[in-house]
Design brief:
The protein is 63% helix and 11% strand. It is of the alpha/beta class. The longest helix is centred in the middle third of the chain and has 37 residues. Keywords: Phosphoprotein. It comes from Streptomyces litchfieldiae. This is Response regulator.
C-alpha cells in the first residue's frame, strides 16, 4: 500500500481552506488544515509534509514570519513553500516571498489547474524522495547484516551481488531525481537529493570494500603503466 503525501494548507479564512481542499482533492493526497501560523508550526513538529501552501495575509503571525520559523528548523527547512496572497504589492513584495524561502508565489484569484499542477510536482518529488530513502535504509540494514555475518559462504554467495544490483538501481533513481529537481528550480529539494546521493555514495564504498574482486582491481590499477 502506497502511503499518501501530506499537504499543509495554511489560511486564517475557512472559506479559503475549503476552496483549496476542493482544488487539491483530485490529487488524492492527505490535506491538513491550519488556520494560523502558530497552528502550522505545531503541525510541522510531528508531521512530514510534501509541500506547504501558505497564505501571506494572516493576523498575528503572517506568512513571511511563519516561513522564517519553518526555514530555521532543521526538520522542516527543506519543505517547499508556495505563498498565496490576495494582494499584489509589486516586485518588492514578491521578492520578499522568495527571500523568505518560497519556491513559488501565487496571487489570488489563481487558476485552479495551475495550482494543482504546481502542487502535484512537489508531491511527486516528495514521494520519489521517500522511496529512495526507504530503499537506502533497507540497503544499509542489509549491508550491516552482511558485515556482522561470519558466514563466508553467505558473503561470497548471492548476497553481495544482489545488494550491489539493488544499490545500482537506487543510485540511478537518485540521479534522475536530482536532474528533475535541478530542472524544476526547487533549490531546497535539490539540497535534500544531494544529501541522499552522498549517503548512497557511502553505501557504495562500504559495499565495494566487502567485494575482494573490487578491492584487488583498485589496488592493481595504480601500478598499470
Amino acid at each position: 500500500m502506497v502511503q499518501k503525501a501530506k499537504i499543509l494548507l495554511v489560511d486564517d479564512r475557512p472559506e479559503n481552506l475549503l476552496a483549496l481542499e476542493a482544488i487539491l482533492s483530485a490529487l488524492d493526497q492527505t490535506l491538513v488544515r491550519a488556520s494560523s501560523g502558530e497552528e502550522a508550526l505545531k503541525a510541522l513538529l510531528t508531521e512530514d509534509f510534501a509541500v506547504i501552501l501558505l497564505d501571506v495575509q494572516m493576523p498575528g503571525m503572517d506568512g513571511f514570519e511563519t516561513a522564517a520559523h519553518i526555514k530555521r528548523r532543521e526538520r522542516t527547512r527543506d519543505i517547499p513553500i508556495i505563498f498565496l496572497t490576495a494582494i499584489n504589492h509589486g516586485p518588492h513584495h514578491t521578492f520578499r516571498g522568495y527571500a523568505a524561502g518560497a519556491v513559488d508565489y501565487i496571487s489570488k484569484p489563481f487558476d485552479p489547474w495551475v495550482l494543482r499542477a504546481k502542487v502535484s510536482v512537489f508531491v511527486e518529488l516528495h514521494m520519489k524522495n521517500m522511496q529512495l530513502r526507504e530503499q537506502a535504509l533497507l540497503l544499509r540494514r542489509e549491508l550491516e547484516g552482511g558485515l556482522a555475518s561470519t558466514d563466508a559462504e553467505r558473503s561470497a554467495g548471492g548476497l553481495l551481488p544482489e545488494l550491489s544490483a539493488r544499490l545500482a538501481a537506487v543510485e540511478e533513481q537518485a540521479e534522475v531525481l536530482t536532474k528533475e529537481l535541478s530542472e524544476s528550480g526547487a533549490g531546497p529539494a535539490v539540497s535534500t537529493a544531494a544529501h541522499l546521493e552522498r549517503k548512497l555514495s557511502g553505501l557504495r564504498r562500504a559495499l565495494d570494500a566487502l567485494q575482494p574482486g573490487v578491492t584487488e582491481q583498485k589496488s592493481v590499477e595504480p601500478q598499470a603503466g
